[in-house]
Design a protein that fits this description.
By secondary structure, the chain is of the alpha/beta class. The chain has one domain: Protocatechuate 4,5-dioxygenase, Chain B (3-Layer(aba) Sandwich), CATH 3.40.830. It is built from 10 helices and 10 strands. Helix 1 crosses helix 4 and helix 5 runs parallel beside helix 10.
Length: 265
């Protein structure tokens, strides 16, 4: 069974479901070059928990966890099978983890996955992020999940490289970014390329604009789970870079073992 590189994508607004632009094209292309997963563990910024948690719904529902958007968005469903067996594997790797048998898929998971695997024929479960825990703690959780990558599981981290909704410029053209947004994105790409874990763990102090880019941390925390799950020898490859609404960096990364195939575009 192929080892599958963990990935991190910036999922953007729910409106991406109607017009995904260049990011959606990159997501679909990434799915084409990755080995086909036997199952997906989606680490979404939109499921926050107080303790580590995994979902185990046999048929996860589509959660429309957003408000004030066009009616057509609420009619869209993405209904892959669940993966109760994968939830059990996660529980074996993280003893004491909470298991939620009712949790469905929030838009951080189903919006990008609908572009990547539109047939909805790959089982999906979710893994929560802990706003009360540090980036390093999420990296250590990812390290514990690393065996899954050799079992055909795609660790799919979905959040945002930058996520300050108060700074969004609704009519800004794609590709245009506020100065601190592009500065933080550039810093993140470089820190990942150098695998500077101390700086990445301490990004709020060591990066330009880190606190403004992430007034709260939940949208960056999935990245650390994917990075940890990739293992100590993995390197970051840029899959996509762009900006949406001036405040959202749409960066996507694959974390690959040295010598693995290049999934960058």
């Amino acid at each position: 069974m192929d080892t599958i590189s963990p990935i991190f994508i910036s999922h953007g607004s729910p409106m991406m479901m109607l017009d995904g632009g260049s990011a959606a094209v990159a997501w679909a292309r990434l799915a084409e070059v990755l080995p086909r997963p036997r199952a997906i563990l989606a680490v979404s910024a939109h499921w926050t928990t107080r303790v580590p948690a995994v979902s185990a719904a046999p048929t996860p529902e589509t959660i429309h966890d957003f408000y004030g958007f066009p009616d057509e968005l609420y009619a869209i469903e993405y209904l892959p099978p669940g993966a109760v067996d994968l939830a059990a594997e996660v529980a074996d790797l993280l003893p004491g983890i909470a298991v939620d048998v009712r949790r469905g898929l929030d838009h951080g998971a189903w919006v990008p996955l609908r572009y990547m695997y539109p047939q909805a024929d790959i089982p999906v479960i979710q893994f929560g992020v802990l706003p009360g825990a540090t980036p390093e703690a999420h990296y250590r959780l990812g390290e514990m999940l690393q065996p899954l990558t050799a079992r055909g599981v795609l660790v799919f981290a979905s959040g945002a490289s930058t996520h300050n909704l108060y700074d969004m410029v609704r009519d800004a053209p794609d590709g245009q970014a506020l100065p601190y947004v592009s500065e933080f994105s550039d810093w993140l790409v470089d820190a990942l390329d150098r695998r500077d874990l101390p700086a990445l763990f301490d990004y709020r102090r060591q990066s330009p604009g880190g606190e403004r880019a992430h007034p709260s941390e939940e949208h960056l925390l999935p990245l650390y789970v994917a990075l940890g799950a990739a293992g100590a020898e993995a390197r970051s490859r840029v899959v996509h870079r762009d900006y949406n609404a001036a405040a959202l960096a749409m960066d996507a990364f694959a974390f690959e073992k040295v010598g693995a195939g290049d999934t960058a575009n």
